[in-house]
């Protein structure tokens, strides 16, 4: 069974940093592209980042480019999102999603940016 | 970049058929595949249609997808509506690794 479990969310002040993790199991992680997708409260889905199966290529939405960094460790079956210079508008549930296009999604982790 | 436009909401009665549209703003709808995701409250999205019209295992054949190049749009049709189909539905497509979601359509089954 495919499982994606996000962690690392929480409350952070504007300008702060946070690192999200996504632990994958039930499939050959190194064989799949991965994504981060977020959903602000009461809003729709927004794709924010993509990483190829071996770590390249990498792509970002304009809204996070230069502030967020996606990475992966295939030996640990894990996906990461380093978020810096956080803003109030980054408040959202962050999902990791497998594949291009995405087929399986994790349960999400909530990031709240507030003072 | 392109946009995908969906109606904000649709409603229909149980047992009826509803169609949700998704119009691509630029570039051909056939350029890359269109996916449809269902999201119930407080749950992550799940795939109901991939590659324009394919259904994942476990998704009932009441769900079907199509694309129309003449209107540059994709459609999700749900027949024999059930109350459990009440959810938000999102279309998705991509150019290279850059991905776009539609704004979502709230389906009410009343």
Structural summary, described in words:
The complex is a heterodimer of chains A (115) and B (110). With 115 residues, chain A is mainly β. Chain A has strands spanning 3-7, 10-12, 18-25, 34-39, 45-51, 58-60, 68-73, 78-83, 92-98, 104-105, 109-113. In chain A, the strands form two sheets. In chain A, strands 2, 4, 5, 6, 9, 10 and 11 form a seven-stranded mixed β-sheet that branches. A four-stranded antiparallel β-sheet of chain A has the order 1-3-8-7, with no helix packed on it. By secondary structure, chain B is mainly β. Chain B has no helices and ten strands. The chains are: A mainly beta (115), B mainly beta (110). The A-B interface holds A 33, 35, 37, 44-47, 50, 52, 57, 59, 61, 95, 100-108 and B 33, 35, 37, 39, 44-47, 50, 56, 88, 90, 92-94, 96-104.
Short description:
With 115 residues, chain A is an all-beta fold. Chain A has strands at residues 3-7, 10-12, 18-25, 34-39, 45-51, 58-60, 68-73, 78-83, 92-98, 104-105, 109-113.
| Average pLDDT, all residues of chain A | 98
Average the pLDDT over all residues of chain B and give the rounded result.
Answer: 97
Summarize the largest interface: chains and residue counts. Answer: A-B, 22 and 24 residues
Total of helices of chain B: 0
- The 3D shape of chain B can be described as globular
Main sheet characteristics of chain A: 7 strands, mixed
Q: Write down the oligomeric state.
A: heterodimer
What is the helix fraction of residues of chain B, given as a range?
under 10%
Largest sheet of chain B: 6 strands, mixed
- Report the count of strand segments of chain A: 11
Structural class label of chain B: mainly beta
Give the H and E element order of chain A: EEEEEEEEEEE
Q: Percentage of helical residues of chain A?
A: under 10%
- Overall 3D geometry of chain A? globular
Backbone CA Rg of chain A: 13 Å
Series of H and E elements of chain B: EEEEEEEEEE
Tell me the total number of β-strands of chain B: 10
Please count the helical segments of chain A.
0
